[in-house]
Amino acid sequence: MRWTHSQLTRHSPAESTNAATFPGDGRRRRRLGVVQEALSGALTVSEAAAALGVHPSTVYGLCDRQELAHFRVSNAIRVWPEDLQSFTTRRRRR
């Protein structure tokens, strides 16, 4: 499931368990929790490699060649399970 911008920015104090434990801007912490929850389904390169049965460097190469849909979180590459599934489906047809 992919999250829209409105789902990532919508929050209420009742949704957050982090607001009381961190000093400072509680809204920022709540948003961070929502983003982390949204990204929790994304696979790391190692997880994607394990699912494909290949070495992680192969997954990096697929991402570099734009053969595997991916996104970056800071310097880390993440892959949605749906994109991994569509990649394997496309590769089977060849």
Compile the SSE list and pairings.
Blueprint: H1 5-9, H2 26-39, E1 43-44, H3 45-52, H4 56-64, E2 71-73, E3 76-79, H5 81-92
Antiparallel strand pairs: 1-3, 2-3
Characterise the protein shown here:
The protein is built from five helices and three strands. With 94 residues, it is mostly helical. It has two domains: 5-39, no CATH class; 43-92. It has a three-stranded antiparallel sheet with strand order 1-3-2. Helix 3 crosses helix 4 (56-64). The longest helix is centred in the middle third of the chain and has 14 residues, at 26-39. It is elongated. The protein starts with a helix and ends with a helix. Residues 6-16 and 18-22 have low confidence and may be disordered.
Strands, count: 3
Series of secondary-structure elements, N-terminal to C-terminal: HHEHHEEH
* Low-pLDDT runs: 6-16, 18-22
Taking strands numbered 1, 2, ... along the chain, how are they ordered across the largest sheet? 1-3-2
How large is the count of helical segments? 5
Structural class: mainly alpha
